[in-house]
Amino acid sequence: MATASLDVVGIGNAIVDIIAHADDGFLAAAGMVKGSMTLIDEARADEIYGKMGPGIEMSGGSAGNTIAGIASLGGRAGYIGKIRNDVLGKVFRHDITSAGVEFPTPSAIDGPATARSMILVTPDAQRTMNTFLGACVNLGPEDIDQALIERAQVTYMEGYLYDPPLAQEAFRHAARLAHAAGRKVSLSLSDSFCVQRHREAFLQLIDTHIDVLFGNEAEITALFETQDFKSATERLRAVCDLAAVTRGAAGSVIVTKEQIIEVPAAPVSRIIDTTGAGDLYASGFLYGMTHGKPFAECGRLASLAAAEIISHYGARPETPLADYVRAA
Predict the structure, then answer these.
(1) Which residues have a Cβ under 8 Å from the Cβ of 227 and sit 6 or more positions away?
(2) Is 177 within 8 Å of 80 (Cβ atoms)?
(3) Cα–Cα distance, 122 to 88 (Å, whole number)
(4) CA distances (Å), 243 to each of 114, 188, 260, in order?
(5) Quick check: helix, strand or coil at residue 291?
(6) Which residue from 285, 310, 315, 313 is spatially nearest to 73, judged by alpha carbons?
(7) Which residue stretches of the chain are H helix?
(8) Per-residue pLDDT of the chain in tens (328 residues, 90 and over written 9)
């Protein structure tokens, strides 16, 4: 097996986030479920954008955030995602490549616009996402860069991308390429509503293709249709070799066939915005794993990366994570 020249390559929805403050009344009036991610069409995206307060725009997308975090830690990373040759597409490409990430996927010259997500942040720091997938829905197996996959120790895929049928084929194709090259495959469950939509398909994917699974407590319990977290982790051990499950202020647990490792949450003086906390947790964990760190240290790095991201608005690091970790 050739030596990997990349630590992680991510596959996900290439999205530009538009983030604004909102209160619970705004969410209720708009029919939104706080803390959820809802897929919307372009007309609904325009409607929400017109009603939102002043916002900030920055590149996002779950896997894109994770990959940017790995680069911020000093890792070597690549990304596969579909954008259009429009203004937001140029913004996304500039942001991720300027972070030091390889992004060779060509821009589409026709079809839907680059994806965007309207993110409403309430005073309790919860984020409610309304996502127009745009060009992302056209990502398919032909967009999977075989050479990029084969160069990476781990291929990381976001569950959010699993809605379009073409993307499901792309996931399986990428996983087969990675395993054929002797590499590992990782999946983030992304959202409990996403898990409910694709529960059986996710279980089959985990059983046949996934080496490392990421999720939060709500996603894992939804996956196994139980309210009991301990029961869910025991079932997780039966289907997955390695999983990392976040539990908010309670920290996280790393689950293997042999053991369950509890990892405390890293301290943060003030929680501003939880957008991207799980994404950056995955950054820290995968960076540690691809650099030969023991699982407990991978969890510590993951918690630190998540702590940095929730201390400010947006899902990309403000402080280089390598510096943040060194100062911790």
Answers:
(1) 221
(2) no
(3) 25
(4) 32, 10, 10
(5) coil
(6) 285
(7) 24-29, 42-51, 62-72, 87-98, 146-151, 165-180, 192-209, 217-223, 229-239, 277-290, 295-309, 321-327
(8) 678 899 999 999 999 988 899 999 999 999 999 988 898 999 999 999 999 988 888 898 999 999 999 999 999 999 999 999 999 999 999 999 999 999 999 999 999 999 999 999 999 988 898 999 999 989 999 999 999 999 999 999 999 888 888 889 999 999 999 999 999 999 999 989 889 999 999 999 999 999 999 999 999 999 999 999 999 999 999 999 999 999 999 999 999 999 999 999 999 988 988 889 999 999 999 999 999 999 999 999 999 999 999 998 888 999 999 999 999 8
> Among the CATH numbers 3.40.30.10, 3.40.50.720, 3.40.1190.20, 3.30.930.30, which is that of 6-13+62-113+138-327?
3.40.1190.20
Residue type present at position 255: V
d(CA 241, CA 164) in angstroms, rounded, equals 27
Look up the pTM and report it: 0.91
Give CA–CA dist 186/189, Å, rounded.
Answer: 10
* H or E segment to which residue 318 belongs: none
- Residues 308-327 as b or e (16 or more Cβ within 10 Å = b): bbbbebbbbbeeebeebbee
Tokens, residue 81? 């995602």
- Say which residues have a Cβ less than 8 Å from residue 169's Cβ, sequence separation at least 6: 140, 141
253 backbone dihedrals φ, ψ, rounded to 5°: -130, 140
Pairing of strands 127-132, 37-39: parallel
Q: Which residues contact 38 (CB under 8 A, 6 or more apart)?
A: 32, 129, 130, 131, 193
Domain ranges of the chain: 6-13+62-113+138-327
